[in-house]
Amino acid sequence: MKTENYIMLKADEGKVLTNGEVYGKVIVLGNGDKPENYHEISDEEYREIQSNEVDPIENN
Amino acid sequence: MSIAEKFEVIADEVYEKGKSDFKDLFAKGFTNNGARTYYSYAFRTASFNADNVIDFKGMCKPIEATQMFYNMKSTHLPIGIDMSNIDVSNQNVIDQLFAYSSKLLELPDFNIPATKRIYNTYSYCYALHTIHGKVRVNADTTYTNPFKECNALQNIEIEGTIGQNGFNVQWSTKLTVKSLLSILTALSKDSSIASGKSITFATVHKDIIEGDSQCLEQYNLAISAGWTIAYA
Question: A47 to chain B nearest CA, in Å?
């Protein structure tokens, strides 16, 4: 039996983890990635970031 | 059969023949007998239903297909389209190809080759559950909202290697184990490519991936190679 050990970050309730590029409630760090690369933002901030993404249909 | 009934049958046959001839004529005219290659915006906002689907019978061979099926209002797409010749040196070539076609249920296999980027290509296809054929990518293919709001998507098969950031299926909570395995298998296991890269799944995918031995194997290999896995 083989056991894999990874670092898993879990966001607090109402928060989302991000490194500025990827967002998640749970982040499983790839080999070489570090917890200090991540911080929490609120769900509201996350929704705002998503809604600020370019909405293609509005540009056409 | 009465004379009236016979007449009705003949009338139906004539009607169907006329409809079929019209579709063939349309297909030939629309494709300039197969010579047309620029199809960007060609079917934007168009509407087809099961009764009026056009079969291009291979005559529709786009080289450019930006927004070709953007914001279509129908449940069906034209068929008999071959995208194997699209200009893969053009990074925009399948941008927003099907975006906002919110009633589409399935996509036929159009033989779309790996392109430089997948930019909103399938996004906002809220009802789409199956992409037939394969989504072809290579390690250099970049992703911007490839499947955003594809809430119904269940079946997808990736051919090639995912090697860049931005592949995100967080909205597709109904993806099958087979689809998830296809994505995980496609993730580059070359650490020189995977290091520092990330991919986003839905939170419900976590248990599915960890509960399937094949998915788990690919998942472990991906993380070891350097992929960070986000569950949003």
Answer: 12
Distance separating alpha carbons of residues B126 and B138, to the nearest angstrom: 26
* Beta carbons of B164 and B188 less than 8 angstroms apart: no
Interface A-B: count of C-beta contacts within 8 A: 75
Q: Quick check: B196 and A33 in contact, CB under 8 A?
A: yes
Give CA separation, B200 vs B111, B167, B227, in Å: 26, 7, 10
Query: Widest CA span of chain B, in angstroms?
Result: 78
pTM: 0.91
Determine whether the interchain pair A33/B203 forms a contact, defined as Cβ–Cβ distance below 8 Å: no
Q: What length does chain B have?
A: 232
Phi-psi map region of B68: left, alpha, beta (phi>0 left; psi -120 to 50 alpha): alpha
Residues 6+ apart with CB under 8 A from A60: B67, B70
**pLDDT tens per residue, range B163-207:** 999 999 999 999 999 999 999 999 999 999 999 999 999 999 999
Kind of pairing, strands A26-28 and B228-231?
antiparallel
Q: Quick check: B47 and B72 in contact, CB under 8 A?
A: yes
B107 strand-pairing partners: B131
For B198-232, what is each residue's pLDDT tens digit?
A: 999 999 999 999 999 999 999 999 999 999 999 99
Chain A nearest C-alpha distance from B20 (Å): 34
Which chain A residues contact residue B71 at CB under 8 A?
Answer: 57
